[in-house]
Amino acid sequence: MAQEKELGMLSSSRPATPTSFAEVDKELHSPSSPIPTTSSDASSLHDSINSDPLSALERALTPDLRTDAELTYTRTGTSFATNASRPPDFEVDFAADDPDDPRNFPFWYKGIIIAAVSFATWTVVLYSTSYTSSMPGMMEEFGVTSEPVATLGVTMYLTGLAAGSLILAPLSEIYGRRPIYIGSLLIFCLLVLPCALATSLAEILVVRFFGAMCGSAMIANSPGTVADITNETYRALAFSIWSIGPMNGPVTGPLIGGFAAEYLGWRWTNWIVLILSGVGWAACSCLKETYAPAILKKKAAKMRKDTGDDRWWCRYDQQKLSVGEILKVNLSRPFVLTFTEPILWFWDAYIATIYGILYLCFVAYPLIYQDLRGWSAGFTGLAFLGIGVGTMLAIVSEPLVRRMIQAHEKEPETGRVAPEASVSIVCVAAILIPVGQLWFSWTSVPITIHWIWPILSGIPFGAGNSLVFIYSSNYLASTYGIYSASALAGNSVIRSFVGGTLPLAGPAMYAAMTPQWAGTMLGLLEVALIPIPFVFYKWGKQIRMRSPLIKRLREDQEKSEKRAARARRHAARRNGDVRMAEEGAVTETRDNEKLERSITGERDVKV
């Protein structure tokens, strides 16, 4: 019961503005429901998976904070009726062609927004790995002899990214995205400066942690910005374009940092990031607000001020939870889910291991190409281009992947493909990753083997990693519904911790086992993990149905749909639309049958 109380305090999803009876179910939920429902779980049965196979992930990345008033709306004609203190005629909302609605922004301006937030996110992620190129010069200047100690700079940065995401993601839902971008990126830029001027390694380690906390605002919130301005038809494409920046950040860090450290000195790895992040801050500062609740609250406040009439309102004026309560839930719920949901035990372990081995590359590549092959720091950075090519192939393959997902049979209860459809892509990726890892291990040395072969091994390795991160996240988002943001946040913390700590053991491991056998051990570990996605692909539904939380979510989702159908029918009757009322009754009957079949089917499931 304590777990249920904690999990029920807050729910997350992207709010949508209903414009027809067909969309009213996105806002109609009973406040007495044992689990608060949101637009994400209510709309999940209606959003077309055919147009966007990543819809569940996109909803999870764009949470909102629900209000008490929002839970009791009744659609009548073209306005909402709530209570006497909030007259429907004075509601501030977006019109169909309202230029203030982010989804009505001009196409060219949407492109600028996506480019700006992608670039800013790229600079933040890039800084996590460009540091590795500065380590030799920094260690020499500060007299640091232990490479694992110097590698703590990567550990502190990734830990800061994880911690900051838990705090800054919910704050954007209160104050809007633009203020969080401007404030956090400005502080991020300022905290790069002490690293460039540092006189000791300790200074760098501490400052990088807090700098990463601020920079995490881009990683946590920029996907939400993309979802704010796009519709279902083009959202998957927009996300693919946006992901070019953050997905390529880790591999471009050593490339840029390597040439900077080689020709300008190790401190310039920081100065360049300061310049790039400054450009990103300037670009984001020039953008309009894209978060609909923040825009509507500002418009309502302006109407009250301009007219002197306090009756003007919007649905987001009343905040249900205080900032402290919101932060408490966002800091605790991810860990509650992580340690109580067996599904997350396996997926968090799998993704964290893959992520940790990826970051071990930033130890292995300098060892292979600089120490053994005698390459310069700059040219060693070029060796990461193989992984970058694989990452780009994974991104541009989205149309093909979409068709593969849609080829799966749809669930009769929802009319959508099951979450396990996304796992089919992870199964392919789970094979590509060890192929690339073992290929690299046995072609990187001896150095008589041509250098192109280990670089080419990065293509399947990079593609596999990217596909795992994207589609395993989509699976978790589809599985956990209104709690998907918390499930993904917990996953992010675990993988960042492993990704930051595993490289600390890298130098000793490669020295003791040689690059071939250390890499082989990692490849065999990845092979041993291959059954995880295949098991979930084959028996995922049965496993999901064994989770009490997921079963409860599904039952409440069905009940929410029934309430929405009744509300549509009642609204139609009030407006004299007999045909729509009759259709609503038929829909309710069909929904009741679906619910009964669903519950009966769950009783029959056996593992």
How would you explain this protein's 3D organization?
One of its GO terms (biological process) is xenobiotic transport. Residues 1-50, 555-607 are annotated as: Disordered. It is a multi-pass membrane protein. Residues 555-564, 574-607 have a biased composition (Basic and acidic residues). Residues 30-43 have a biased composition (Low complexity). With 607 residues, this protein is mostly helical. It has a domain at 106-287: MFS general substrate transporter like domains (Growth Hormone, Chain: A). The protein contains 23 helices and two strands. Strands 1-2 form a two-stranded antiparallel ribbon. A hairpin with a 2-residue loop joins strand 1 and strand 2 (79-81). It is globular. 53% of the residues are buried. Mean pLDDT is 82; it is low at 1-51, 63-84 and 598-607.
Give the SSE layout.
Elements: H1 2-7, H2 39-43, H3 55-60, E1 74-76, E2 79-81, H4 107-142, H5 147-175, H6 177-196, H7 201-229, H8 232-263, H9 268-285, H10 292-307, H11 323-340, H12 342-372, H13 377-382, H14 385-396, H15 398-406, H16 420-441, H17 452-456, H18 458-480, H19 484-501, H20 506-529, H21 531-545, H22 548-574, H23 578-604
Antiparallel strand pairs: 1-2
